[in-house]
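Continuing the batch. This is chain 6 of the set; chains 1 through 5 are on the previous pages. Same settings as before, nothing changed between runs. Recording input and output for traceability.
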Amino acid sequence: MIMPYAHRLKNGCAVLGLLLLAACSMLSEKAERDSGPRPGSVDVSSVPDAVPRAEPKSKCGNPQSYEVFGKRYKVLSSGQGFVEKGIASWYGKKFHGRKTSSCETYDMYAMTAAHKHLPLPTYVEVTNLDNGRKIVVRVNDRGPFHNNRVIDLSYTAADKLGMLSQGTALVEVRAIDPNSYKKGGAPVYSGGKYGQSQAGFYLQVGAFSNRQNAEQLKRRLNTLVPDIRISRAVVDGKQLYRVQIGPLLNVEAADGIVKSLADYGIWEHHITVN
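Output for chain 6:
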């Protein structure tokens, strides 16, 4: 379970003092394990998914960019067409009742989530790529600021997705267009027709227009891991050579590699599913 780093943002701008206080608080709590309610004490199976509806952007939590622990994150102007795959985590009792980045109160029993880049609020469908379960949540918080995580789910959302015991899951996050959402039917997505990938996942550590540069990085990392491939892709009309580690068997393997990459001076990486 990965703890979020919820920061109060006021009038579209980060309040530096609160950010620093939150950062210190989260660092001190990082070693502690988050939790949910006592097993069997709460039945969340009947909690409905969030229902997408058109909402104005929150007055809190939507600056053009913000900085946490020395890293700057850009906030998207819209969730239109947003789709990503990666590792989800969840947060629960430790942060229940605290303020989220949108200045709302975090409720671990609500169908909500935290994301680093999507505007607040945004409705997304999250699919567990291991078991095929799907949920719809409302993104109203910032995080998770942990290497290799793309979304932090509430306790209830994680339970419904079947990932509480493991703590993490490989997921697809897809933004929902609230103006075309049909209650009681299949959601209509701003990114097009949904399609679940059953393939393995990789840790991408670089993308180059020059293949020689990709080969050089691959040789450098071969001393760390043997399973490295160079995958070709066309992005915005340009051919890229992507250096990817994998396929990875599980989230634990990905986390272990991420820790080792720091020793090689590699801090930028993300999960890709092929």
